Amino acid sequence: MTTLTDDVKDPATDDASHDxxxxxxxxxxxxxxxIPKGISRWLLTTNHKDIGTLYLWxxxxxxxxxxxxxxxxxxxxFQPGLQIVEPNFFNQMTTVHGLIMVFGAVxxxxxxLANWLVPMMIGAPDMALPRMNNWSFWILPFAFLILxxxxxxxxxxxxxxxxxxxxxxxxxxGDSTALFVFSVHIMGISSIMGAINVIVTIFNMRAPGMTLMxxxxxxxxxxxxxxxxxxxxxxxxxxxxxxxxDKYFGTSFFDAAGGGDPVLFQHIFWFFGHPEVYIxxxxxxxxxxxxxxxxxxxxxxxxxxxxxxxxxxxxxSFVVWAHHMFTTGMPVEWEKFFMFxxxxxxxxxxxxxxxxxxxxxxxxxxxxxxxxxxxxFIVLFTIGGLSGLMLAITPVDFxxxxxxxxxxxxxxxxxxxxxxxxxxxxxxxxxxxxGRMFDITLAKWHFWCSLISVNVLFFPMxxxxxxxxxxxxPDYALQFADxxxxxxxxxxxxxxxxxxxxxxxxxxxRKRGEPVSDQVWDGAExxxxxxxxxxxxxxxxxxxxxx
Amino acid sequence: xxxxxxxxxxxxxxxxxxxxxxxxxxxxxLNLRTGVTDISQQxxxxxxxxxxICVVIAVLVFGAMFYAMFKHRKxxxxxxxxxxENIKVEIAWTVVPFVILIxxxxxxxxxxxxxxxxxxPDMTVLVTGSQWKWHYKYxxxxxxxxxxxxxxxxxxxxxxxxxxxYLLEVDRPLVIPTGQKVRFLITxxxxxxxxxxxxxxxxxxxxxxxxxxxxxxxxxxxxxxxxCAELCGKDHGFMPVVxxxxxxxxxxxxxxxQEQIAVARKEEEQRLLAMNMSMDELMKQGQQTYNAxxxxxxxxxxxxxxxxxxxxxxxxLILNDQQAHIDIVVNGRAGTAMQSFSKQLxxxxxxxxxxxxxxxxxxxxxxLVQAKDVNALMQGE
Lengths: 547, 381
Ligand code: HEM
Ligand SMILES: [Cu+2]
Ligand SMILES: [Cu+2]
Fold this sequence. Notes:
The complex is a heterodimer.
Chain A: H1 38-44, H2 48-76, H3 87-122, H4 130-138, H5 140-149, H6 177-204, H7 217-248, H8 262-279, H9 282-296, H10 303-316, H11 332-360, H12 369-392, H13 394-400, H14 404-434, H15 440-467, H16 481-509
Helix pairs in contact in A: 2-3, 2-4, 2-16, 3-6, 3-14, 4-6, 5-6, 6-7, 7-8, 7-9, 7-10, 9-11, 9-12, 9-14, 10-11, 11-12, 12-14, 12-15, 14-15, 15-16
Chain B: H1 2-23, H2 38-71, H3 87-115, E1 123-130, E2 133-138, E3 143-147, H4 153-156, E4 174-177, E5 181-188, E6 193-197, E7 202-206, E8 212-217, E9 222-227, E10 240-246, H5 248-273, H6 279-298, H7 316-320, H8 322-331, H9 347-359, H10 371-379
Parallel strand pairs in B: 1-5, 4-10
Antiparallel strand pairs in B: 1-2, 2-3, 5-8, 6-7, 9-10
Helix pairs in contact in B: 2-3, 6-9, 8-9, 9-10
The complex binds protoporphyrin IX containing FE and copper (II) ion (2 copies).
The site of one copper (II) ion has 6 residues of chain B, from loops.
């Protein structure tokens, strides 16, 4: 987020402090000191830092848009009865909220962080494929414009849930389905290009001496995530295409009347969908593994076991998909297989949590804002992980499935997990990006308001879920009324708290605040803390030597 | 360290919230219900077992973490130690959780075996979901009927006070005997639904074109309420499941009555075929049927939802083609949400609703459609 203003300069060389108009004077070999101005800088940029910034702002805007939809959902659910929106529109809100949060907020935010950080962490001058990098960002806004504009069609946007189960999404869906499919295709292409870029960069552009087992955890987790992306985004593309041809071109993949099977849809979708949830959490593990050692002033405990745990989580994630489908009616042997495999995943996940605690153990702890978010992550993500373990138990999952218990579970892992880790990351690296400390008072307000409201928002969802409230309903029976009121109040408070974050970010990008040192955080280690603050437009033109 | 204290007190608050939830573990607004079948009780015990294991793990992990946060903070002058590996510990915390998991998996697998064993039932009910109602068919008896939400629209729209069983009441509940193994065959006519009765720990998807099995042996007579659990379109939130469990003797009496009523209905329908009803009668009956059955999609004012459900007001098909109009109500239109109503409605009800939609909202065709016209169309095919 360095660069909302144009006065970015490259402190590495003195003469780079000329503004753009002076660049003609330079000889050709310092062409890269030229920073284009205005809109074309952002449209045409191939600089990993600029593209990272674009991704992060885009993700934040999508977070606010998807959050606004969540506010509509919570406003309707504030009381029993239909007050604000029609059921059909309610379903569009839940669907588009889910899609935007997953594909528009969390995934692009992680890609943005990868863009900023991976080259800086491995001592590379940029991403390996900078032009493709530009493309993979710039097709994203169009994907979401298409998705959002479908809400204004006659009959409205997609209303079949972010999981778009057939035949609700085929035979029984509206005409916006074609737009939905098209936009998911574009999102998928963007993700795949981002993933290829990360892999190629990590394999080819590490500085001399940066062996794989010396890479920072964030780089490791992103490397593994990128492989997951390449493996499953084509599966998503395949399944949306099958939806498209079933709806418009007379195929019957998911239609029993034509020899197909609606449950086949779910197998394909969740073969993508379960690795997808790890795509949204592995980079978070990487971030927490960077932050906790810094503020514990102690090396990460069990680095090697962290790497192996990440890899085994990724591998196991391909054999657990049907735990989302226990109620579809599977042979009991399959149910057992998927139950045991799912339970098994909790072992490497547990190892990660234990390692973080062991890193803090006998450290010298301080509690700056990134650490506060990291600690909140460890506690709240673990709560989400434990409810996930409960959900793995097939006989009990029959009771939990498709209730608010599940909504509570995945928001604990996605909001207090993935989203909190992204916020932790932004606070952690923001001073490096802007060269200034952010407004700590605002940050504290943001943290405490978010922490309290997010629990008022999501914790009672466990209760209404256990008591029997199904998910994706616009109206509910009277015994759920009290908790739903609290949930909505928590929701509004959490939504408002994010405006504090917005204010803080705008302020930070305007270069307010105290200048920071190169290391920024006492205790921070790694290549990105050895370059100047703010990080120059070009870094590591000559690769650093890693001892 | 102020923020540290805040963090810890938030944590304590969370834990006490959790544990106060536990002192009220029996409260059905906070926790799973124990239910009324042996299976549902096993499921409840499994749930509580899992819950307590999770609580213990959480307390240990968070306890260690908060201890470190207090004791090993820099502001208390703690210096960082230098270790970053310990093979023994690392093996221990891989193996111990694994063993705990095995301890969970064994009882879970045995309960699962029981749940999935629907063999040797005493009786069977075919449960069919369709947008947005359930249909029950007793396989051993000549009894079948639809079960539709009974909550008034005015309650949903906040014009009337909401009743005690708001959204969890139907016109005709499923009735089953206690003490017998009742097998449910579950399927769907359109999209995927999911038939869920929490008190039986039964939730099974209704997949169009396929049949799933589930079963329950209910121990106590009573009224048990659940809901459709799989997103199935606009009124997914409005298709409850209500099951009444009666003592076997009472049940036998009930099912006999139902069989007689079914026979009487058929005779009545034949009798009505020979009769002509007046416009007033047809319109009155038609409006009732329309509001109960069609309004969910085509809306009470007949205007539908643009782009989703067509308007019947001023519809070219209605205004120009009476046969096609009867036909679409009788047979539905394949591949759309417009389903066949020949099973759900009697011929005279269809006649009435067709007459109503041909004349309401300024459609004013003036046509009268009688049960025999509907019969003619059904026979003619
Ligand atoms: C701003 C705070 C948020 C609030 C108040 C909120 C609220 C909700 C609620 C109430 C639902 C359930 C809707 C229903 O089942 O009827 C829901 C669904 C969902 N949310 Fe959120 N949410 C928030 C943030 C997020 C974030 C950050 C993510 C992802 C990272 C997310 C991902 C999802 C997903 C995937 C669904 C499922 C959508 C579906 O059922 O198809 N939410 N959210
Ligand atoms: Cu999964
Ligand atoms: Cu349904």
